[in-house]
Design a protein that fits this description.
heterodimer; A: mainly beta; four-stranded antiparallel β-sheet; 11 strands; about 50% strand; globular; B: globular
């Protein structure tokens, strides 16, 4: 167990809807990164939050947005869901932004119908 | 060329054998290298990190890094059926330290 928690575990939405995924980082970690993992692929970086500010973004459209709160927990919001958004969404926490170890939560499995 | 490439697999070894997993990366500025294990339906679990050239051993696992060849590997000695999983190689680049670039993973099966 990494101490990183995510909710919900599973989610089913229809195309065009909006979704919010939540993550609580490991104690002592101030940085949260979000990744999308499609079936049979490695995780793809969405963005990272450090001290409530976005600190880097991958090749994802603006309908993917996020927040980090003062307690370092984080949300990932996806608007106008598309079928290709169906994936495992992973949150990783780390003690900083210096390229060190990242520890993943259990993930949220999103299915878009 | 992809940022991180892993040997395609799947890899199948008998119990007790050495499993060798390989990974190459494209950015010479890469600084940190990680191996994650992912069981089917689960999230990735960090098993090794390596930052400098050479070998790093942790129990039955040995990570090897060769920055000149842009190559990192993971050896699993005395493989056990419980090692059957997908192994993901991840790299952190100097220019975007907080972001991990992952390979597609190598599926390992250890048969009794």
């Amino acid at each position: 167990e990494t101490g990183v928690t995510q909710s919900p575990t599973h989610l089913i939405k229809t195309r065009g809807q909006q979704v919010t995924l939540r993550c609580s980082s490991q104690s002592g970690h101030n940085t949260v990164s979000w990744y999308q993992q499609a079936l049979g692929q490695g995780p793809q970086f969405i963005f990272q939050y450090y001290r409530e500010e976005e600190n880097g973004r991958g090749n994802f459209p603006p309908r993917f947005s996020g927040l980090q709160f003062p307690n370092y927990s984080s949300e990932l919001n996806v608007n106008a869901l598309e079928l290709d958004d169906s994936a495992l969404y992973l949150c990783a926490s780390s003690p900083g932004t210096s390229g060190g170890e990242q520890f993943f939560g259990p993930g949220t499995r999103l299915t878009v119908l | 060329q992809k940022e991180v490439e892993q040997n395609s697999g799947p890899l199948s070894v008998p119990e007790g054998a050495i499993a060798s997993l390989n990974c190459t990366y494209s950015d010479r500025g890469s600084q940190s290298f990680f191996w994650y294990r992912q069981y089917s339906g689960k999230s990735p679990e960090l098993i090794m990190s390596i930052y400098s050239n050479g070998d790093k051993e942790d129990g039955r696992f040995t990570a090897q890094l060769n920055k000149a060849s842009q190559y990192v590997s993971l050896l699993i000695r005395d493989s056990q059926p419980s090692d059957s999983a997908t192994y993901l190689c991840a790299v952190s680049r100097g220019s975007t330290l907080g972001r991990l670039y992952f390979g597609r993973g190598t599926q390992l099966t250890v048969w009794p």
